[in-house]
């Protein structure tokens, strides 16, 4: 009811603004990195496995796609991510040394549960879930678990569940890196410090809402949008496009920026805004040349640029500057303006933000 909404107009908006609290709660009590954060016996399991298979649906699938970059980069573990409804029905090559990781807000998504059971039936006994509901079927059926503390999520479009999943998956990455001798005390302390500062950093990003609202006024008049990202932020571009589709009904798709010239560039006109997630990472220079390609075709750019990039607003380039560059954890910050963009675009269009047509919060039947 209205009382629970407090100053917010919709649950989705409330949940976006709850993220600093949700991430803080999800990390509460984490004094140091240890496999036991994921349950008794996790150390032995982490030693026995040599690759990871992530299974999930929807927004949870995109948190898995983000984690793949961390797991391969920081923990050096070969990682596959697959949509649960695909994995459960295809012939795959099982490996008993796989850690099967499911990611699910509800813990009850039919395809994700079926994919877990399918993996188990193929002889993969090491399973771990990152889940927001401790009493769910998924938590009961997995060997190990990390319970996120997003709290109840009501908006059909997932927001705080996503960022808390990322927090849990980053901890998993660090714990696996540690088991492999790849995380010294200095690195552990540095990562923990960055994680503990996330709520404050995210608060500063949420304060960008007025700038996002001015973008949303433009988007509400569009029929299509393209989202670009590279590396760790490609899944964030995918999630931004998904949010916009789900609640504003604007057709949106995401591409890794390097693929632009292999197709989507043909669609670029002034009528298709191009959102670019531009953290200051090793790929920034390449991303800038992708942006030039868009401008050269008359495309209009909406850029989420990091504090220390020199990208500035000019004709056809709208820049929102992120307060700080957050390194490996940057996806948790860059997703927030995209969530707000979808929210305010939907608001401007007058759609039913919390209950978009044809979609359900939890898909418990196939
Ligand atoms: C539905 C919801 C999404 C969610 C997906 C997976 O499609 O609308 O927000 O990401 O299910 O749900 P899960 O509970 O497994 O994370």
TrEMBL record:
Name of the encoding gene: glmS
Name of this chain's protein: Glutamine--fructose-6-phosphate aminotransferase [isomerizing]
E.C. number(s) listed in UniProt: 2.6.1.16
Alphabetized GO MF terms: glutamine-fructose-6-phosphate transaminase (isomerizing) activity
Keyword annotations from UniProtKB, A to Z: Aminotransferase, Cytoplasm, Glutamine amidotransferase, Repeat, Transferase
Subunit structure: Homodimer.
Organism: Hydrogenophaga laconesensis
Domain of life according to the entry: Bacteria
Functional note: Catalyzes the first step in hexosamine metabolism, converting fructose-6P into glucosamine-6P using glutamine as a nitrogen source.
Main localisation: cytoplasm
Regions that span the bilayer: none
Cellular localisation: Cytoplasm
Residues annotated as the enzyme's active site: 361 (for fru-6p isomerization activity)
Sections of the chain in a coiled coil: none
Reactions catalysed: D-fructose 6-phosphate + L-glutamine = D-glucosamine 6-phosphate + L-glutamate
SIS domain mapped to chain residues: 42-182, 215-356
């Amino acid at each position: 009811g209205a009382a629970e909404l407090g100053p917010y107009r919709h649950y989705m908006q409330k949940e976006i603004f709850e993220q600093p609290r949700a991430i803080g709660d999800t990390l509460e009590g984490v004094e140091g990195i240890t496999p036991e954060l994921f349950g008794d016996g996790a150390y032995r399991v982490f030693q026995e496995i040599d690759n990871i298979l992530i299974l999930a649906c929807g927004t949870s699938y995109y948190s898995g796609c983000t984690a793949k970059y961390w797991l391969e980069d920081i923990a050096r573990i070969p990682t596959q991510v697959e949509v649960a409804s695909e994995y459960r029905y295809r012939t795959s090559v099982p490996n008993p040394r796989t850690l099967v990781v499911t990611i699910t807000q509800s813990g009850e998504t039919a395809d994700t549960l079926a994919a877990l059971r399918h993996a188990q039936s193929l002889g993969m006994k090491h399973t771990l879930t990152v889940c927001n509901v401790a009493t769910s079927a998924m938590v009961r059926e997995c060997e190990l678990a990390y319970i996120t503390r997003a709290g109840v999520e009501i908006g059909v479009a997932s927001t705080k569940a996503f960022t808390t999943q990322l927090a849990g998956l980053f901890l998993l990455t660090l714990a696996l890196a540690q088991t492999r001798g790849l995380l010294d005390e200095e690195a552990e302390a540095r990562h923990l410090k960055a994680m503990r500062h996330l709520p404050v950093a995210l608060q500063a990003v949420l304060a960008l809402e007025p700038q996002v609202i001015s973008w949303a006024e433009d988007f509400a008049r569009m029929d299509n949008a393209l989202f670009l990202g590279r590396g760790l932020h490609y899944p964030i571009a995918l999630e931004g496009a998904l949010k916009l589709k789900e609640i504003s009904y604007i057709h949106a798709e995401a591409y890794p920026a390097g693929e632009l010239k292999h197709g989507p560039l043909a669609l670029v006109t002034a009528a298709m805004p191009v959102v670019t997630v531009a953290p200051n990472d090793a790929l920034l220079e390449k991303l800038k040349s992708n942006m030039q390609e868009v401008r050269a075709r008359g495309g209009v750019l909406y850029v989420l640029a990091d504090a220390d990039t020199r990208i500035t607003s000019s004709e056809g380039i709208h820049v929102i500057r992120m307060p700080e560059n957050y390194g490996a954890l940057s996806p948790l910050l860059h997703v927030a303006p995209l969530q707000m963009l979808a929210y305010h675009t939907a608001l401007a269009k007058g759609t039913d933000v919390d209950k978009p047509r044809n979609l359900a919060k939890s898909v418990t039947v196939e």
